[in-house]
Amino acid sequence: MEFDIGIIGSGPAGYTAALSVASAGHKVVLFEKDLIGGVCLNRGCIPTKTLLHVAEIYDLANNSADLGIFTDNCKIDFGKIYERKRSVVDKLRNGLERSFKNLGVTVINDEAKIIDKNTIVAGNEKYICKQIIAAVGSSPRIIKGMEYDHKLILSSDDVLNFERLPKSIIIVGSGAIGIEFSRILSALGVEVTVIEIAENLLPIADIEVSKRIERIFKSKNIKFYTKTSVEKIDKYEDRVKVHLSNNQNTEAECILLAVGRVPNEIEKVDGVSYIGDVSGSVQLAHYASKQALLKVAGIPFDETLVPSVVYGNPEIAWVGKREQDLENGTYQKSMIPISALAKSQCDNALDGMIKILVTENKIIGAHIVSKEASSLLQQIIIAMQFGITVEELKSVCFAHPTYSEGILECLMRLN
Ligand SMILES: Cc1cc2nc3c(=O)[nH]c(=O)nc-3n(C[C@H](O)[C@H](O)[C@H](O)COP(=O)(O)OP(=O)(O)OC[C@H]3O[C@@H](n4cnc5c(N)ncnc54)[C@H](O)[C@@H]3O)c2cc1C
Description:
7-stranded mixed sheet, alpha/beta, FAD/NAD(P)-binding domain, globular, 415 residues, 22 strands, 33% helix
């Protein structure tokens, strides 16, 4: 069988490429050995945010006495929560499958192998393609001596398939995935302990964001150890004991290892394009889909302006330079507490900050901890991408009361 393009993997990289090329009238074959939608839709972005939404409502309901709302008998139905997560994922997957069908994408539900730059084999069939894109994604990193047993030592996939909530969990690693699961599970009433080897939680973020997260974790009774690694794990029938590098130990029903993801294996062939998580670069869904659009439609994007978002209450979002990487005297900084905004007072969402770093009248970095931080950041990215100066941004009219006006407020305080 002959096609214009053969795409392996149906995550954000693969499906974006397939939909774009098929919309332009080309003949596309897409291979997927598992569920359509990849990690993002089935085991990543979507199920986590669906659970997070419920966890936040539960948390809010339990802490709403200040608002004059009393929920003395507030309970969760775990089965229903997970069922809803499944139905959101299924609905989106069905939508994606329908789009493939409508656009005439041939979907092969099988593992694909790349033979050469124009040939893919799946099952007993050979597919000849003018161009091949491998978008085969990534999998949880395995650490020697701490292999997943899917009962006591878990990956994010296992947590998304819980049949009941554990009473307690130890989360190793405080990157985006570790932080998000800490927030989801703790809001649902699980006792969470985070172990992080670096100096601060969320070490990829600006230092002030990390410190803010530590304060938020303390206020939510999420226990954490920084500058601490796991030395040894003792497994028992129904619990684990973790020996830490600080000579302490901690116990829980199970451990989630959130220690990063590694690109999946696929044949490396000259002339084939490798995009998304498998490219070994930024592991984010929006980066994967932008790489796809660059490859198949020539739509460029600025790789230095890829937003990072860690979801939860409040959201954490950043772009560009972090303060700890800048030399003193080479930049200006402005920071406001989110509580300075009228909207945050109305919403009782007071925890957070907006921090903007500037050089020569242009924003070089922005770090936000706030309700709606992900959307707020996008406004700054547009300014950064198109070289809009601080003075020009100050001349924009921001609505009141909003979180957006925090950007203006922050810029007005620059000296
Ligand atoms: C818990 C969690 C939460 C996340 N949350 C976010 C978030 O909020 N925002 C965000 O931007 N990113 C998030 N991510 C990261 C995001 O999911 C990935 O960056 C994204 O899925 C990468 O897309 P991809 O297309 O490269 O690969 P994937 O989504 O991994 O898809 C690759 C697909 O290729 C298939 N495949 C592999 N080999 C073959 C083969 N030989 N033949 C056929 N098929 C094959 C796989 O089965 C898979 O379906 C999260 C990840 C996790 C684990």
